[in-house]
Amino acid sequence: MTHEKVYPEMKEMLGLAPAFFDEMSCDVIEPEWELMKVFDLGDEPVPRKERELIGLGLMSAQKCRYCTLFHSEFAKAYGSTDEELEFATHFAKSVAGWTGYFYGLQIDAETIRKEMAQLAQKMKGPQKPVVSGPLKDVPREMVYDEMKNILGFVPLCFEKMSHSTLNIEWHLIKQLWFADGPISQKYRHLMGLAIASAQKATHSVVVHTGLARGFGATDEEIEFIVHYTKSDVGWSAYLYGKQVDFDKFRNEIRQICDRIRAAAAEIA
Fold it and tell me: How many Å apart are CA 94 and CA 63, to the nearest integer?
C-alpha cells in the first residue's frame, strides 16, 4: 500500500501524517501504521493513560529522547498528572538500578524464581499495610522482621546488602513497589516488566511478572505489554537510526496531542 493510501487515515485520526513515516517503504508502512493504532491509539487491554505511563518509564530507562517526549505528551493528553509522570520516571530509576544490582551480585535466576513463588503465596492472603519509618539507626534484624511481615521472607539480595544502605533501599522498595501511590501496583509492575524485557534482565523479568500477576495482571495484559515493549524499542531504534529532526518531531507530537485533548473536551 502506498503512502497516499495510508496518509488519509492518519490525518483523520491524528490530524496529520507524521514526517517520520515519509521515508518508510511502501511494503511496510501499512503494517507499521496498523501496529501503531493497536499500541498507541487502541483502548485494550491496558488503558491508554497507563500504557503511556508505562512507555514513559520504559523509554526513560532506555534513554530515548524521542520516545520519552512522545509518551510524556501522550500521557498528559490522556489525563496524566505531573505526580504520575514523576512517579513513572522514579519507578523506572528503581527498576533499572535493581536490574544492575541483581546482575552485579550474580544472583542465580532460579533463586529469584523460588523467592517469587514464596511471595506469590504470601500475596494470596491479607496484605500488610506499608508504613514509613526511620531511615537511620535501625537494627538489621528489625528491617528483616518488616520484610518478613510484608514479603513473607528476606530476599537474598537484602541479605548480601551492607547495613549502611539496607534500610534506605528497603524504604524505597516499600514506597515505590508496594505502597499505594499515583500509579496502581499492577500497572507499575507491568512497567517494570517492560523495562526488564528491554534490558534483557532475566531476574527482573521474573520479579515484575510475578508482582504484576500478584497485583491482578492477566496473561493478556502481560503479553500485550511485552509486545508493546517490542514495538516501542523498535521505534526508538528507527527514530535514532533515521536521525529524525527532533524539533519537527516534537512539534508534530504536540499537535497530535492537542487534537486528542480537543476531542476529549468535546465529548465531555
Answer: 14
Residue 140 CB partners (closer than 8 Å, separation 6+): 163, 166
Yes or no: domain 43-267 corresponds to CATH 1.10.1760: no
Identify which of 11, 21, 10 has the alpha carbon closest to the alpha carbon of residue 248.
21
Judged by DSSP in three states, 20 sits in helix
pLDDT tens sequence for the chain (268 residues)? 578 889 999 999 999 999 999 989 989 999 999 999 999 898 889 999 999 999 999 999 999 999 999 999 999 999 999 999 999 999 999 999 999 999 899 888 899 999 999 998 888 888 777 878 888 889 999 999 999 999 999 999 999 999 999 999 999 999 999 999 999 999 999 999 999 999 999 999 999 999 999 999 999 999 999 999 999 999 999 999 999 999 999 999 999 999 999 988 887 6
Please give the Cα distance from 65 to 83 (Å, whole number).
20
Domain residue extents for the chain: 43-267
Terminal C-alpha separation, the chain: 36
Helices (H), the chain: 3-14, 26-36, 48-62, 65-77, 82-105, 109-123, 140-151, 156-160, 163-173, 185-198, 202-214, 219-241, 246-267
pTM for the whole structure? 0.94
Cα Rg, the chain, nearest whole Å: 21
